Amino acid sequence: MASTLQGRMAPASSAPADAMSASRKSSARAKHLPFSVEREEGRVVLTGELTMRHAGALWRRLSEEVDDASGQRLDLDLSGVTHADGAAVALLVELRAALSGRAIECDLVGGSELLRELVTLYGGERAPTPRPKRVKERGVARFGGGVASVLQAIERWVAFVGSVAAGAAGVVARPRTSNFRSLITLSERAGADGVPIVLLLNFLVGFVMAYQSAGQLELYGANVYVADVVGISVTRELAPLMTAIIMSGRSGAAFAAELGTMKVSEEIDALRTLGLEPVRYLILPRVLALALVAPALTLLGDVIGVAGGAAVGALSLEVTPRAYLAELRTAVFFSDVWTGLVKSVGFGIAIGLIGCQQGFATSGGAAGVGRRTTVTVVTCLFAIVILDTLFTVFFRMLGV
Amino acid sequence: MTSPIVEARSLAVGWPGAAPLLEGVSFDVHRGEIFAILGGSGSGKSTLMRALIGLESPVSGEVAIAGELAPKLEARRPTFGVMFQQGALFGSLTVLQNVSLPLERWTDLPRDAVLAIARAKLRLVGLEEAGDKLPSELSGGMKKRAAIARALALEPSLVFLDEPSSGLDPVTSAGLDDLILTLKRALGLTVVIVTHELGSIFAIVDRCILLDHEQRGVSASGAPRELADSDQPKVRAFFQRAARAS
Question: Which of B116, B183, B187 sits opposite A91 (nearest CB)?
Answer without folding.
Answer: B116
